[in-house]
Amino acid sequence: MALFRRKMVDALGADSKLSGYDAIIDLTRKLNTKFRTAAETQEATRGILNALFPSWLPGAFKVMFSRPLPEFSCRLNAFATAMTCQWLMGPCKVNDVEIDGGQVGTGHGVLVERCRYLEQAGCASVCINSCKVPTQSFFERDMGLPLTMTPNYDDFSCQFSFGKTPDPVERDPAFATPCFVQCPSKRARTPACGGIELPAGTGAAASS
């Protein structure tokens, strides 16, 4: 948590006055207000994820593991995610999921039973722009593995599927979700929640 917080502070140029997990959520909201567009927030978050690792590691993993050993790499990343990210997301477990080609990837998935990050942020746009899209992008572009994350906005669970290429945003149900009634940013009428923003040319975005 301390490392993640430091990297967020580096990206923002400012810290939170809060402590513990509350500070992570506060910094996340600040990240969503700092940038003019959703794409900028997503790229900043991808940069934070890269900063958590030695600069050489993602590229080396792509060359040494993802390309020659994709199935092993998917299982390894699923296991590592389940073991190291529960402080951020809450209890989770490795499971079997559908992957590209309609096959079943044994041990390729991580089921987050009730995402602490999503529940405490209380904002669908924070989930999309500060978690789902940048994490998928980080694994695909930097680690060389396709990843689809499927948040459930009814029960706050989330399914990670390593080895499954994300659907285009216009077909992804997560992008058709208006923000939650209890969204704190929407209630406060701050710019932190502008609804789910689709890239230009993919149709109208759902608004809060």
From TrEMBL:
Occurrences of domain Beta-carotene isomerase D27-like C-terminal (ranges): 87-170
The family database entries (Pfam families) matched by this protein are listed as: D27-like_C
The terms under GO molecular function for this entry are:
iron ion binding
What PANTHER family does UniProt report for this protein, alphabetically? BETA-CAROTENE ISOMERASE D27
Q: What is this protein called?
A: Beta-carotene isomerase D27-like C-terminal domain-containing protein
Please tell me the species this chain comes from. Chlamydomonas incerta
